[in-house]
Amino acid sequence: MSTPFYVSPQQAMADRAEYARKGIARGRSLVVMQFADGIVFVGENPSRALHKFSEIYDRIGFAAAGKYNEYENLRIGGVRYADLRGYTYDRDDVTARGLANVYAQTLGTIFSSAAEKPYEVELVVAEVGETPEGDQIYRLPHDGSIVDEHGSVAVGGNAEQISSFLDQRHRDGMSLAEALKLAVQALSRDPNGSEREIPAERLEVAVLDRARPQKRKFKRIVGRQLSRLLAAEGAVTEAESSEEDGSEEE
Protein backbone atom coordinates (compact mmCIF):
# COMPACT_ATOMS: atom_id res chain seq x y z
CA MET A 1 0.00 0.00 0.00
CA SER A 2 1.48 3.35 -1.04
CA THR A 3 1.80 6.20 1.44
CA PRO A 4 -0.30 9.28 0.55
CA PHE A 5 1.71 12.35 -0.44
CA TYR A 6 1.66 14.81 2.48
CA VAL A 7 1.51 18.57 2.11
CA SER A 8 1.52 20.72 5.23
CA PRO A 9 -1.47 23.08 5.71
CA GLN A 10 0.90 26.06 5.59
CA GLN A 11 2.34 24.96 2.24
CA ALA A 12 -1.11 24.20 0.83
CA MET A 13 -2.34 27.70 1.72
CA ALA A 14 0.83 29.28 0.32
CA ASP A 15 0.34 27.41 -2.96
CA ARG A 16 -3.30 28.48 -3.19
CA ALA A 17 -2.36 32.11 -2.49
CA GLU A 18 0.35 32.01 -5.18
CA TYR A 19 -2.10 30.52 -7.67
CA ALA A 20 -4.64 33.29 -7.00
CA ARG A 21 -2.03 36.06 -7.16
CA LYS A 22 -0.75 34.86 -10.53
CA GLY A 23 -4.27 34.81 -11.92
CA ILE A 24 -4.97 38.34 -10.70
CA ALA A 25 -1.62 39.59 -12.03
CA ARG A 26 -2.61 38.58 -15.56
CA GLY A 27 -5.45 41.12 -15.49
CA ARG A 28 -5.21 44.84 -16.10
CA SER A 29 -4.87 47.11 -13.08
CA LEU A 30 -7.45 49.62 -11.92
CA VAL A 31 -7.49 52.60 -9.57
CA VAL A 32 -10.08 53.82 -7.06
CA MET A 33 -9.40 57.31 -5.76
CA GLN A 34 -11.05 60.02 -3.68
CA PHE A 35 -11.53 63.50 -5.12
CA ALA A 36 -13.25 66.60 -3.77
CA ASP A 37 -16.81 65.58 -4.72
CA GLY A 38 -16.63 61.82 -4.35
CA ILE A 39 -14.78 58.71 -5.52
CA VAL A 40 -13.57 57.96 -9.05
CA PHE A 41 -12.96 54.51 -10.58
CA VAL A 42 -10.47 54.31 -13.47
CA GLY A 43 -9.25 51.27 -15.37
CA GLU A 44 -7.99 50.18 -18.75
CA ASN A 45 -10.74 48.11 -20.35
CA PRO A 46 -11.13 47.74 -24.13
CA SER A 47 -14.50 46.00 -23.73
CA ARG A 48 -17.63 48.14 -23.72
CA ALA A 49 -19.79 45.31 -22.34
CA LEU A 50 -17.71 43.53 -19.68
CA HIS A 51 -17.49 46.18 -16.98
CA LYS A 52 -14.94 46.29 -14.17
CA PHE A 53 -17.01 48.89 -12.25
CA SER A 54 -20.65 48.69 -11.26
CA GLU A 55 -23.24 50.20 -8.99
CA ILE A 56 -24.26 48.05 -6.02
CA TYR A 57 -26.64 50.43 -4.24
CA ASP A 58 -27.46 54.12 -3.83
CA ARG A 59 -24.04 55.29 -2.63
CA ILE A 60 -21.98 52.13 -3.11
CA GLY A 61 -19.77 51.14 -6.04
CA PHE A 62 -17.91 47.93 -6.88
CA ALA A 63 -14.60 47.42 -8.69
CA ALA A 64 -12.82 44.17 -9.48
CA ALA A 65 -9.67 42.84 -11.12
CA GLY A 66 -9.14 39.24 -12.19
CA LYS A 67 -11.40 36.66 -13.81
CA TYR A 68 -14.60 38.25 -15.08
CA ASN A 69 -16.92 35.28 -14.53
CA GLU A 70 -15.85 34.98 -10.89
CA TYR A 71 -16.16 38.63 -9.92
CA GLU A 72 -19.41 38.96 -11.86
CA ASN A 73 -20.92 36.24 -9.65
CA LEU A 74 -19.76 38.17 -6.60
CA ARG A 75 -21.20 41.43 -7.95
CA ILE A 76 -24.61 39.83 -8.54
CA GLY A 77 -24.57 38.37 -5.04
CA GLY A 78 -23.75 41.80 -3.62
CA VAL A 79 -26.64 43.44 -5.46
CA ARG A 80 -29.04 40.80 -4.14
CA TYR A 81 -27.75 41.26 -0.59
CA ALA A 82 -28.11 45.05 -0.81
CA ASP A 83 -31.60 44.94 -2.30
CA LEU A 84 -32.85 42.44 0.28
CA ARG A 85 -31.35 44.30 3.23
CA GLY A 86 -32.62 47.68 2.01
CA TYR A 87 -36.13 46.29 1.45
CA THR A 88 -36.26 44.36 4.76
CA TYR A 89 -34.84 47.12 6.97
CA ASP A 90 -33.97 50.55 5.60
CA ARG A 91 -31.94 51.87 2.68
CA ASP A 92 -29.49 53.48 5.11
CA ASP A 93 -28.74 50.04 6.57
CA VAL A 94 -26.98 49.05 3.34
CA THR A 95 -23.33 50.05 3.86
CA ALA A 96 -20.01 49.36 2.19
CA ARG A 97 -18.71 47.90 5.46
CA GLY A 98 -21.54 45.39 5.62
CA LEU A 99 -21.10 44.46 1.97
CA ALA A 100 -17.34 44.07 2.42
CA ASN A 101 -17.97 41.69 5.33
CA VAL A 102 -20.25 39.56 3.15
CA TYR A 103 -17.66 39.42 0.37
CA ALA A 104 -14.90 38.64 2.88
CA GLN A 105 -16.84 35.65 4.24
CA THR A 106 -17.46 34.33 0.73
CA LEU A 107 -13.87 34.75 -0.46
CA GLY A 108 -12.44 33.37 2.79
CA THR A 109 -14.63 30.26 2.63
CA ILE A 110 -13.68 29.57 -0.99
CA PHE A 111 -9.98 30.21 -0.32
CA SER A 112 -9.81 27.79 2.62
CA SER A 113 -11.83 25.05 0.94
CA ALA A 114 -9.75 22.20 -0.45
CA ALA A 115 -12.64 21.11 -2.66
CA GLU A 116 -12.40 24.04 -5.09
CA LYS A 117 -9.80 26.44 -6.41
CA PRO A 118 -9.51 29.95 -4.91
CA TYR A 119 -11.11 32.83 -6.75
CA GLU A 120 -8.65 34.76 -8.92
CA VAL A 121 -10.14 38.15 -8.04
CA GLU A 122 -9.39 41.24 -5.99
CA LEU A 123 -12.27 43.54 -5.10
CA VAL A 124 -12.79 47.14 -4.02
CA VAL A 125 -16.04 48.25 -2.37
CA ALA A 126 -16.48 52.02 -2.00
CA GLU A 127 -19.17 54.20 -0.44
CA VAL A 128 -19.42 57.95 -0.88
CA GLY A 129 -20.35 59.91 2.24
CA GLU A 130 -21.99 63.28 2.80
CA THR A 131 -18.48 64.71 3.26
CA PRO A 132 -15.01 63.48 2.19
CA GLU A 133 -14.43 62.33 5.76
CA GLY A 134 -17.40 59.97 5.39
CA ASP A 135 -16.05 58.19 2.29
CA GLN A 136 -15.21 54.52 2.73
CA ILE A 137 -12.97 52.35 0.54
CA TYR A 138 -12.34 48.66 1.31
CA ARG A 139 -9.97 46.39 -0.59
CA LEU A 140 -10.60 42.64 -0.48
CA PRO A 141 -7.79 40.35 -1.66
CA HIS A 142 -8.34 36.78 -2.81
CA ASP A 143 -8.10 35.33 0.72
CA GLY A 144 -11.07 37.27 2.09
CA SER A 145 -9.17 39.72 4.30
CA ILE A 146 -10.40 43.34 4.45
CA VAL A 147 -8.10 46.34 4.10
CA ASP A 148 -9.47 49.79 4.94
CA GLU A 149 -7.96 52.17 2.38
CA HIS A 150 -7.76 55.97 2.33
CA GLY A 151 -7.08 58.37 -0.52
CA SER A 152 -6.33 55.91 -3.30
CA VAL A 153 -5.98 52.19 -3.94
CA ALA A 154 -4.86 50.10 -6.91
CA VAL A 155 -5.57 46.42 -7.59
CA GLY A 156 -4.58 44.08 -10.40
CA GLY A 157 -1.37 43.11 -12.13
CA ASN A 158 0.83 46.15 -11.40
CA ALA A 159 -0.86 47.28 -8.20
CA GLU A 160 2.20 47.78 -5.98
CA GLN A 161 4.00 50.11 -8.38
CA ILE A 162 0.81 52.05 -9.13
CA SER A 163 -0.05 52.40 -5.43
CA SER A 164 3.43 53.74 -4.69
CA PHE A 165 3.10 56.27 -7.53
CA LEU A 166 -0.31 57.43 -6.27
CA ASP A 167 0.76 57.67 -2.62
CA GLN A 168 3.41 60.19 -3.61
CA ARG A 169 1.12 62.37 -5.74
CA HIS A 170 -2.46 62.07 -4.53
CA ARG A 171 -3.73 64.89 -2.32
CA ASP A 172 -7.01 65.80 -0.68
CA GLY A 173 -9.38 68.12 -2.50
CA MET A 174 -8.37 67.23 -6.06
CA SER A 175 -10.86 68.02 -8.80
CA LEU A 176 -12.31 65.20 -10.87
CA ALA A 177 -10.16 66.18 -13.86
CA GLU A 178 -7.00 66.20 -11.73
CA ALA A 179 -7.79 62.86 -10.10
CA LEU A 180 -8.66 61.26 -13.45
CA LYS A 181 -5.45 62.41 -15.11
CA LEU A 182 -3.37 61.23 -12.15
CA ALA A 183 -5.03 57.82 -12.29
CA VAL A 184 -4.41 57.50 -16.04
CA GLN A 185 -0.80 58.58 -15.57
CA ALA A 186 -0.34 55.86 -12.93
CA LEU A 187 -1.96 53.19 -15.09
CA SER A 188 0.23 54.20 -18.04
CA ARG A 189 3.44 53.24 -16.23
CA ASP A 190 4.83 49.84 -17.19
CA PRO A 191 6.69 47.64 -14.66
CA ASN A 192 10.00 48.52 -16.35
CA GLY A 193 9.41 52.23 -15.65
CA SER A 194 8.47 53.34 -19.16
CA GLU A 195 5.20 55.07 -19.98
CA ARG A 196 2.65 54.38 -22.70
CA GLU A 197 -0.42 56.21 -23.90
CA ILE A 198 -3.87 54.87 -23.05
CA PRO A 199 -6.47 56.34 -25.42
CA ALA A 200 -9.83 57.44 -24.01
CA GLU A 201 -11.69 54.66 -25.84
CA ARG A 202 -9.73 52.05 -23.86
CA LEU A 203 -10.62 53.58 -20.50
CA GLU A 204 -13.52 52.66 -18.26
CA VAL A 205 -14.37 55.49 -15.86
CA ALA A 206 -17.12 55.85 -13.28
CA VAL A 207 -17.75 58.06 -10.25
CA LEU A 208 -19.68 58.13 -7.03
CA ASP A 209 -20.63 61.84 -7.04
CA ARG A 210 -21.81 63.19 -3.69
CA ALA A 211 -22.96 66.43 -5.37
CA ARG A 212 -25.42 64.57 -7.60
CA PRO A 213 -29.01 65.47 -6.61
CA GLN A 214 -30.32 61.95 -7.28
CA LYS A 215 -30.34 59.34 -4.53
CA ARG A 216 -28.20 57.09 -6.73
CA LYS A 217 -24.71 58.62 -6.85
CA PHE A 218 -23.07 56.23 -9.34
CA LYS A 219 -22.61 57.28 -12.96
CA ARG A 220 -20.35 56.34 -15.83
CA ILE A 221 -18.21 58.89 -17.64
CA VAL A 222 -17.93 58.23 -21.36
CA GLY A 223 -17.60 59.91 -24.73
CA ARG A 224 -17.14 63.65 -24.99
CA GLN A 225 -17.32 64.21 -21.26
CA LEU A 226 -14.41 61.82 -20.69
CA SER A 227 -12.40 63.46 -23.45
CA ARG A 228 -13.03 66.92 -21.96
CA LEU A 229 -11.90 65.78 -18.51
CA LEU A 230 -8.72 64.22 -19.87
CA ALA A 231 -7.96 67.40 -21.83
CA ALA A 232 -8.85 69.82 -19.02
CA GLU A 233 -6.06 71.83 -17.42
CA GLY A 234 -7.93 72.26 -14.17
CA ALA A 235 -11.28 71.70 -12.56
CA VAL A 236 -14.33 71.48 -14.77
CA THR A 237 -17.53 73.25 -14.01
CA GLU A 238 -20.48 71.40 -12.54
CA ALA A 239 -22.45 72.08 -15.72
CA GLU A 240 -19.80 70.35 -17.82
CA SER A 241 -19.55 67.32 -15.54
CA SER A 242 -23.31 66.77 -15.48
CA GLU A 243 -24.20 67.71 -19.07
CA GLU A 244 -24.57 64.12 -20.28
CA ASP A 245 -26.03 62.52 -17.11
CA GLY A 246 -29.10 61.24 -18.92
CA SER A 247 -27.13 59.16 -21.41
CA GLU A 248 -24.42 57.98 -19.01
CA GLU A 249 -26.38 56.41 -16.19
CA GLU A 250 -26.17 52.67 -15.93
Structure description:
By secondary structure, the protein is α+β, with helices and mostly antiparallel strands. 38% of the residues lie in helices and 22% in strands. It is built from 8 helices and 10 strands. It has helices spanning 9-25, 68-88, 96-112, 159-169, 176-187, 223-231, 238-242, 245-248; strands at residues 30-35, 38-44, 53-57, 60-66, 121-127, 136-140, 147-149, 152-155, 203-209, 218-221. A 5-stranded antiparallel β-sheet has the order 8-1-2-9-10. The protein has a 5-stranded antiparallel β-sheet with strand order 3-4-5-6-7. A hairpin with a 6-residue loop joins strand 6 and strand 7. The chain is globular. Residues 234-250 have low confidence and may be disordered.
Mean pLDDT: 88
Largest sheet: 5 strands, antiparallel
* Count of DSSP-assigned helices: 8
* Topology order in helix (H) and strand (E) letters: HEEEEHHEEEEHHEEHHH
Cα-based radius of gyration, to the nearest Å = 19 Å
Structural class: alpha+beta
Q: Give the tally of β-strands.
A: 10
Terminal-residue CA separation: 61 Å
Q: How much β-strand is present in the residues?
A: 15-25%
The largest beta-sheet arranges its strands as 8-1-2-9-10
Any idea what the shape is? globular
Low-confidence stretches: 234-250
Helix content percent band? 25-40%
